[in-house]
Model the fold of this input.
Amino acid sequence: QVQLVESGGGLVQIGSSLRLSCAASGRAFSRYAMGWFRQAPGKEREFAATISWNSASTDYADSVKGRFTISRDNAKNTVYLQMNSLKPEDTAVYYCAARASYFSSPRFSEYSYWGQGTQVTVSS
Done:
């Protein structure tokens, strides 16, 4: 069982940066691949970024590639999402998720544990 708590969301202007954090509690955080997903109002939840258990592998949605960076610190049981050059279309609730596998995946159906989400709003 893994419990996930996101933080770091907020209201920012176009072009700003934010760093989201996801603190995990429970057993063996390092055995889980982690992902960030987001859901905008009226839209389905979509993949943003994922990272393998040892940070060797990362993957990003095309919409965030080059602007977002996912990282993790297994000693702190925390995964991060650094978001730069934010755009209004990045406005969404961002969810952290844990996959019971060493390997990363962009498919939200493969993640077993989810946080409650943190709101990111990019204002023009």
Summary: Residues 33 and 53 are 5 Å apart (CA to CA). The mean pLDDT is 96.
